[in-house]
Write a structure and sequence with these properties.
Layout: E1 2-5, H1 8-15, H2 20-28, E2 30-37, E3 40-45, H3 48-62, H4 67-70, E4 79-84, H5 85-88, H6 92-103, H7 108-117, E5 120-124, E6 127-132, H8 134-148, H9 153-169
Antiparallel strand pairs: 1-3, 2-3, 4-6, 5-6
C-alpha cells in the first residue's frame, strides 16, 4: 500500500474530474481512496509496479498536471520529474522571480521548452514538473536549471538546443 500526500485543492480536482480516480484505478489495476486523511491519497494495487505507476500519476496531478497528461505515465517510456524551487531558493520573492522567468512573458518560454523537447511541463506552487521520455526531460531540465542559475534565456535555449541535437544525433 502506498500513500501520497498532495494538497486538498488537488485532491478535490481529482475527485471532481469526471471519473478521474476510476480511470486511474482501472489503468493501474488498483484501488484509490481519498477519504482516510485530508491530504493523503491511499493506493492499494495488485503489485508494486501498479502502485508505483498510480503513485506517479497522483503525484503528477498534485504537482499541477491535468489528468490526461498525468495518465501518460501509464505508458512505457514516460517518466515524471520535478524540480523543487523552494528547496533551491530560500526566499519566496526569488522563487516567484524564477517561476516568472521559466514561464516567460505570456507563457512563451514554457511553450518553447515544451515544443522543442516534447515534454509536458507544469509550473505549479513551488515546483516545476516535467513529463516525457528521459532524454526529453533532461533537455528541458537543462533549460530550467540554466534559468534558475540566473543565466539569459538565450543561453538557456542554446544549451537546451545543443543537448537536443546531441540526443537526436545519437539515435
Amino acid at each position: 500500500m502506498e500513500e501520497v500526500l498532495i494538497s486538498r485543492k488537488r485532491i478535490e480536482f481529482i475527485t471532481g474530474s469526471h471519473g478521474a480516480l476510476e480511470r486511474i484505478a482501472k489503468m493501474c489495476k488498483c484501488t484509490i481512496d481519498t477519504s482516510n486523511n485530508e491530504n493523503a491519497v491511499s493506493i492499494n494495487g495488485e503489485d508494486a509496479y501498479s502502485e508505483f505507476v498510480a503513485k506517479n500519476i497522483i503525484t503528477a496531478i498534485g504537482r499541477g498536471f491535468d489528468v490526461d497528461t498525468a495518465c501518460l505515465l501509464g505508458r512505457d517510456g514516460y517518466y515524471f520529474s520535478y524540480i523543487d524551487l523552494k528547496q533551491a531558493f530560500g526566499s519566496e520573492k526569488r522563487m516567484l522571480q524564477v517561476k516568472a522567468r521559466i514561464i516567460g512573458r505570456g507563457g512563451k518560454t514554457k511553450r518553447y521548452i515544451e515544443t522543442l523537447t516534447s515534454v509536458k511541463m507544469s509550473v505549479y506552487g513551488h515546483t516545476v514538473g516535467l513529463i516525457g521520455h528521459i532524454n526529453e526531460i533532461e533537455e528541458a531540465e537543462t533549460a530550467v536549471r540554466t534559468l534558475m542559475e540566473g543565466s539569459t534565456h538565450r543561453l538557456a535555449y542554446g544549451r537546451m538546443e545543443a543537448r537536443h541535437r546531441r540526443n537526436r544525433d545519437s539515435i
